[in-house]
């Protein structure tokens, strides 16, 4: 074996060993798409408002914000596509909590800091009979609660009358039932640079905010002008909190604290980082997709792949005999590299992706056939096995590259313009093309050199 062939053998051994280590054990290493694993299927409809009309640009910006949020949420290969003029379909493979995902993608996440011009008291919790010794005491508590409710509603009406008069801009409500008359926005989410989930001294989840230079100046100015007064943190028209400013805050950092869990704080941070939705959306459909169809599809795909592989292996052995052994081993290495590539790229396997693997099986030996026919032609001209192999590979290389590069270009177009399962097919096909070319040009050549062992055996021309 020549020195360059030894280098090829070393490369093949390293690649195969690395692929084996990345693939086995296979369980749980390959991400499955919605059609195979199940998940959440959500249909959203965009709504026009007085300040934001529905245009192609607003829908495209809506898609971009949704993709940004979902990418940060950690969903593998989501499908986010436009349907018609104002609808968006979102498929989230492997999502076990559709409601949490819906909260993430459906909220507008419009963040504002506003001065508090007036506020009602908090609405007390309603009385419960078991907390009182007699019916008279309970009825008296019920009357006090009703009086408080009427008083708060009256105060709310007075606040609403001041909107647009005394600098009031909106009336918003918080989780405790308080209503706030709020002034114009002092700082908004458009000034945000980053939002992170952290914990305060009591171990409660909070969201820390970092503003850009313009936002930092506005926030410092707002806190300086409102020392001893309340500034509310408003999200989607609801007051999250309304702390009293103790001193001027410089540096462009703020904190949102509220009654939310760690998971809710993380989702809020994601929404703030990704930005507000350009238009509000309604949820038309939100359902979970079970993996039962996926299990049947996987079994059918495995069966089809196994039958296809056995037929290809059998054909190569019957037609090319000894040469067929090298082709079959190269095909096995090709499949190993396909799965290793899917795992390494963290790609998602979909039902069309399984079709791509089966297609790869059928196409993987195409390069071997081209090479073998050239080798046989050279051997019939009287060349030695070594010379015939060398000439066969050189003459077949251009054809192999031309055929596979054109297919790779088609796969790239599918990936760029497609989405979801179409992209899964394109990724699987691309990995299969690269693996088959490597197997045909490098692995097969090394195997032929090993099988030949430097002898002048006539096996190269003996197919009968």
From TrEMBL:
It is found in: Cell inner membrane; Cell membrane. The gene is secD. InterPro entries: Acrflvin-R (IPR001036), SecD (IPR005791), SecD/SecF_arch_bac (IPR022813), SecD/SecF_CS (IPR022646), SecD_1st (IPR048631), SecD_SecF_C (IPR048634), SecD_SecF_C_bact (IPR055344), SecDF_P1_head (IPR054384). This is Protein translocase subunit SecD. The keyword Calcium does not apply. Residues 173-279 form the SecDF P1 head subdomain domain. Belongs to the SecD/SecF family. SecD subfamily. Keywords: Cell inner membrane, Cell membrane, Membrane, Protein transport, Translocation, Transmembrane, Transmembrane helix, Transport. The chain crosses the membrane at residues 325-345, 351-375, 396-418, 424-448. GO terms for molecular function: protein-transporting ATPase activity. GO terms for biological process: intracellular protein transmembrane transport; protein targeting; protein transport by the Sec complex. The lineage of its organism: Bacteria, Thermotogati, Synergistota, Synergistia, Synergistales. PANTHER family: PROTEIN TRANSLOCASE SUBUNIT SECD, PROTEIN-EXPORT MEMBRANE PROTEIN SEC. One of its GO terms (cellular component) is plasma membrane. The keyword Protein transport applies.
């Amino acid at each position: 074996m020549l020195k360059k062939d030894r280098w090829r053998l070393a490369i093949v051994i390293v690649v195969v060993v690395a692929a084996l280590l990345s693939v086995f054990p296979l369980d749980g290493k390959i991400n499955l798409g919605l059609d195979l694993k199940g998940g959440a299927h959500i249909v959203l409809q965009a709504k026009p408002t007085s300040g934001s009309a529905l245009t192609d640009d607003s829908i495209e910006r809506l898609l971009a914000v949704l993709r940004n949020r979902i990418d940060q949420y950690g969903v593998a290969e989501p499908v986010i596509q436009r349907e018609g003029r104002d609808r968006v379909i979102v498929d989230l493979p492997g999502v076990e909590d559709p409601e949490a995902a819906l909260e993430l993608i459906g909220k507008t996440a419009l963040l504002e800091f506003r001065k508090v011009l007036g506020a009602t008291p908090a609405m007390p919790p309603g009385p419960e009979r078991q907390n009182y010794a007699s019916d008279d005491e309970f009825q008296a508590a019920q009357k006090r609660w009703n009086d408080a409710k009427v008083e708060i509603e009256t105060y709310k009406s007075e606040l609403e009358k001041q909107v647009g008069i005394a600098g009031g801009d909106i009336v918003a409500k918080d989780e405790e039932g308080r209503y706030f008359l709020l002034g114009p926005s002092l700082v908004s989410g458009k000034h945000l640079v980053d939002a992170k989930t952290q914990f305060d001294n009591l171990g409660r989840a909070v969201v820390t905010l970092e503003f850009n230079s313009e936002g930092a100046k506005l926030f410092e100015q707002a806190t300086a002008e409102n020392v001893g007064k309340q500034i509310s943190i408003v999200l989607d028209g609801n007051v999250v909190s309304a702390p009293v400013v103790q001193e001027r805050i410089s540096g462009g950092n703020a904190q949102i604290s509220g009654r939310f869990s760690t998971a809710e704080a993380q989702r809020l941070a994601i929404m703030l980082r990704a930005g507000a939705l350009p238009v509000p959306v309604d949820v038309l459909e939100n359902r979970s997709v079970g993996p039962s169809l996926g299990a049947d599809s996987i079994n059918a795909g495995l069966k089809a792949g196994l039958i296809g592989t056995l037929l290809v292996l059998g054909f190569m052995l019957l037609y090319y005999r000894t040469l067929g052994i090298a082709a079959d081993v190269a095909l096995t290495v090709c499949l190993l590299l396909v799965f290793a590539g899917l795992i390494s790229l963290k790609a998602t396997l979909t039902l069309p992706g399984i079709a791509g693997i089966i297609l790869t099986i059928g196409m993987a030996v195409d390069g071997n056939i081209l090479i073998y026919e050239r080798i046989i032609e050279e051997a019939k001209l009287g060349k030695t096995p070594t010379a015939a192999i060398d000439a066969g590979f050189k003459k077949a290389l251009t054809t192999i590259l031309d055929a596979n590069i054109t297919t790779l270009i088609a796969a790239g177009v599918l990936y760029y313009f497609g989405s979801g399962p179409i992209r899964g097919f394109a990724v699987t096909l691309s990995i299969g093309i690269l693996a088959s070319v490597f197997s045909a040009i490098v692995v097969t050549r090394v195997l032929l050199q090993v099988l030949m062992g430097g002898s002048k055996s006539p096996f190269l021309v003996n197919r009968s």
